[in-house]
Structures are given as C-alpha cells and as structure tokens.
Design goal:
- It comes from Tagetes erecta.
- One of its GO terms (biological process) is L-tyrosine catabolic process.
- There is one protein chain.
- The chain is mainly alpha-helical.
- The chain has a single domain, classed as Aspartate Aminotransferase, domain 1, CATH 3.90.1150.
- 41% of the residues lie in helices and 10% in strands.
- It has a three-stranded antiparallel sheet.
Length: 71
C-alpha cells in the first residue's frame, strides 16, 4: 500500500481520480484504496517479469512528474 500525497499533485483530488487518470494516460492499473476503506492510498501488486515491472514504474513516475504542482 502506498499513501498518496495529493498536495503534490495538480488536478487530482483523491485515490480514485489518481488511479483512473493513471490508467487512461499510462495504461497502468492500481487499486484505489477506498475499495479497502483506505482513502487516498493505492494498492500496488505485481506478478510480472522485471523488465515489465520497470516499465510500469517508469510510467507511474512520468505520470506523477506530469501532474506535479508547479510551485
């Protein structure tokens, strides 16, 4: 489980919006924490080869950089 610091992201208000936008923009699927009654957390699971995992993590990083507050 990963706690989201939404104050660092622009235009993302909760874990569901984070997961939805990530899926649409980067084709990476994470489970929003509200499903487990953990608001603004995400569940990360993987069972893939290391190169595919590295690609997925790079996509999550690119997404976060793209949506980072420009302060």
């Amino acid at each position: 489980m990963v706690k989201l610091d939404l104050s660092q992201l622009q235009g993302i208000n909760d874990d569901m919006e984070f997961c939805s936008k990530l899926a649409n923009e980067e084709s990476v699927i994470l489970l929003p924490g509200f499903v487990l009654r953990m608001k603004n957390w995400v569940r990360v699971t993987f069972g893939i080869e290391p190169s595919a995992l590295e690609d997925g993590l790079a996509r999550i990083k690119a997404f976060c950089i793209r949506h980072a507050n420009k302060c």
